C-alpha cells in the first residue's frame, strides 16, 4: 500500500515523508492517535519507502520490488515488528530486539523496528528499551505506536519525536469500509458513525452489530412506552436470552437516545445523527419527550450496561430498567406531552 492509499492522515504522513526525503528521519518516533486509524500501516509503509530498491519518487515505495514484497509478508530481515505477548510487551522481547540491533542491517538498507501498542511495555521492558533509545544504533529507526501516549514513560517520550494521528472522518471510513466489504453506502455510514473515527472499530462493529436487527430493536424502544407491565415482563424474558447481543441492544438504544437529544438541541444538524436513515422517526420521537426525559433515559441505559457487565440477574436488571424508563417516559413534560 502506498502513502496515497492511507486515508485521513495527510499531516502525519507529510512529516514523515519530508524527514525521509531530506535525510532527517529521526532514530525514534512515537506515533500516537486513536486505535485503528493507520498508525501501524504508516510505519510499515515508511519501512518500505526506506528500503525500496526502485522507488518511483523520493519518499515512496514501488510495492513491487523484493524488499517491498518481503515487508508485506513480514519476511524482511531488517523490519522487526513487536506485538504484545499476551497483555504486555515483555523484557525478553526487547532483549531479543537489542540482540538483533548489535549487527548491521542484513539486507543492505536500514533497519526499522515497530512496537505496536507500545504503552503495554511492562516496567522492565520499558527500562530496557530506554537504554536503546539513549544510544541508538546507526541506520536504525524505531516507531512506537500507541493509542495511550500518556502511559509511556516520560523518559521514553523525551527521546522520541512525536507524530500525531487523528480520528478518521466519516467519509474516509465509509470509503475504507466499502473497499473491504459488500456494505451499501447507507450501512457503511451507520457503522462509520458508531466507530469514533476508527477504521478498526468500524470493522469490528460490522461483524458484531446486525444492521437490519437494529430496526426491530428501535421499534421495540419506540413501543416500550405503550406497553403494559405484563408485556414488558414478556419482552424482558425474551431479551434476556440474547446473550452477548443484549449489550449491543442497550448500546443501540443509547445511541438512539443520543440522536433524539441531538435533534432536540440542534434540529438542523441531521448529518450528526448516527441513525441517519431514520430521520423522520428521530424527529417524531424527539417531539414527544423533554430534554430532561431523554437525559434520564441515556443515564439509565448507561447504568443498565454497567449492571449487566457485573453479571447480575439479566432479566431482573432489564425489567427494572424498562419499567423505570416507561414510567419516566409517560410523565408529562414541560409542554404537557404524555404518551
Features:
Zinc Finger, Delta Prime, domain 3, alpha/beta, 339 residues, 5 strands, Rossmann fold, single chain, five-stranded parallel beta sheet
Write a structural description:
It is a single chain. With 339 residues, this protein is of the alpha/beta class. The protein has 2 domains: 3-166, P-loop containing nucleotide triphosphate hydrolases (Rossmann fold), CATH 3.40.50.300; 209-329, Up-down Bundle (Zinc Finger, Delta Prime, domain 3), CATH 1.20.272. The chain contains 15 helices and 5 strands. A 5-stranded parallel beta sheet has the order 2-3-4-1-5, sandwiched between helices. It is elongated and about 75 Å long. The model has no long low-confidence stretch (mean pLDDT 90).
Write the layout of secondary structure elements.
Elements: H1 10-21, E1 28-32, H2 39-51, H3 66-72, E2 79-82, H4 91-101, E3 111-115, H5 123-134, E4 140-146, H6 154-157, E5 161-164, H7 170-180, H8 185-194, H9 199-208, H10 213-223, H11 229-239, H12 245-265, H13 279-288, H14 291-309, H15 314-329
Parallel strand pairs: 1-4, 1-5, 2-3, 3-4
Helix pairs in contact: 2-3, 4-5, 7-8, 8-9, 10-12, 11-15, 12-13, 12-14, 14-15
As for the number of domains, it is: 2
Instruction: Report low-confidence residues grouped into runs of 5 or more.
Output: none
Oligomer: single chain
Give the strand order of the largest sheet, numbering strands 1, 2, ... along the chain: 2-3-4-1-5
CATH topology of the largest domain: Rossmann fold
Output the number of helix runs. Answer: 15
Helix amount, in percent?
A: 40-55%
Distance between the termini: 55 Å
CATH H-level superfamily title of the largest domain = P-loop containing nucleotide triphosphate hydrolases
Quick one: CATH class of the largest domain?
Alpha Beta
Largest sheet: 5 strands, parallel
Radius of gyration: 25 Å
**Derived structural class:** alpha/beta
> What is the overall shape?
elongated
Average pLDDT level: 90
Strand fraction equals: 5-15%
SSE run: HEHHEHEHEHEHHHHHHHHH
Number of beta-strand segments: 5
What is the second-level CATH architecture of the largest domain? 3-Layer(aba) Sandwich
